[in-house]
Specification:
With 140 residues, this protein is mostly helical. The protein has a single domain, classed as Orthogonal Bundle (Arc Repressor Mutant, subunit A). The protein is built from eight helices and no strands. α6 (97-103) packs across α7. The protein is elongated.
Amino acid sequence: MVFLKALFNELPHFVEHSLKLHICLPKDKRLEKVIEYLHHYYNTEIKIESLGELALLSSRSLERIFKKETGLTLSKYQQMLRIIKSLELLSSGNLTISETAYTVGYKSVQAFTRSFQAVMQFRPTDFMKNINLNIVKGIY
């Protein structure tokens, strides 16, 4: 619930950056186990070969089918999952940006910040400032 509140309260302030934050679930049944695995282990290093074994596909076929079905590469899909989860964690107010970065699987805060900014078009610190401002205003 906190995550949805954050999206409704925070993200409209950043719409001018044409935010595109969604991921499509593939319809191809061969990718069901891959999607389940990605959603469960988004914060770990994932090997494409292992995902190929799950789908009973070669790595190359998996990448091609996955991109066709979702519009994203496997690594971009994982990045989106990490950023979505980070928004939820940051919105909860229980973790710092640094703690959130490591929790969602980034090896450094700098890598997290670059990834966050690439997806969201603003920095995690901007997001946190806006959350804190809304808390002060009594929106939460």
